[in-house]
Amino acid sequence: MKHLIIFTFIALLSIPAQAYQAKVYVWRDENGVLVFSDSPRPGAEEVEVKEENSVLPSIDTSILDIKPKIIEDKYQVVITQPEDNATIRDNSGSVYVAGGIKPIFKRGFSVQLYLDGKPYQDPQNHSMFALRNIDRGEHQIKIELINEKGKVIASSEAVTFYMHRASVN
């Protein structure tokens, strides 16, 4: 009976303390695993918990522009090689074309080269081309950037070059 009165007295004293601050107890179970609980048990140690109240200042959001903005990627495509009105002297008729894309070439995009207004081979995922066996004379090249949906999103200015090849008489 004496133990019951002492236990009841301790329990009554601990109720108001638990309302102000939760206590945490720690012990190891039979498998050696660390156990945390809010209920005490024999052999458990009380862990000191520091509770700090965080008060965040209110922010006036009426001055913020929170409307979603549509960001449009404005791509630019340029042909850096050959230069406009360049003369290429190559008896095999080879021309190397280099293009530049700004701001950045994204995955899923492709590049189509046009030679004299007609697509040259299939679109590819980079802007370097090697043209082979190009006839003598004046030619125009142009590069188009195509997005993953197949839509042309940027196009270069046409570049004119002149192919010189030795003739056999």
Q: What is the structural class?
A: mainly beta
- Strand percent estimate: 35-45%
Tally of individual helices = 1
Round the mean pLDDT to the nearest integer and report it. Answer: 81
How would you describe the shape? elongated
CATH structural architecture of the domain at 76-164: Sandwich
Q: How many individual β-strands?
A: 12
The Rg value, from CA coordinates, equals: 38 Å
Q: Please identify the top-level CATH class of the domain at 76-164.
A: Mainly Beta
Query: How far apart lie the N and C ends?
Result: 127 Å
The CATH superfamily of the domain at 76-164 is identified as Immunoglobulins
N to C succession of SSEs: HEEEEEEEEEEEE
Q: How would you describe the oligomerization state of the chains in this entry? A: single chain
In the CATH hierarchy, the third-tier topology of the domain at 76-164 is known as Immunoglobulin-like
Name the poorly predicted regions.
Answer: none
Helix content: 10-25%
| Largest sheet descriptor | 6 strands, mixed
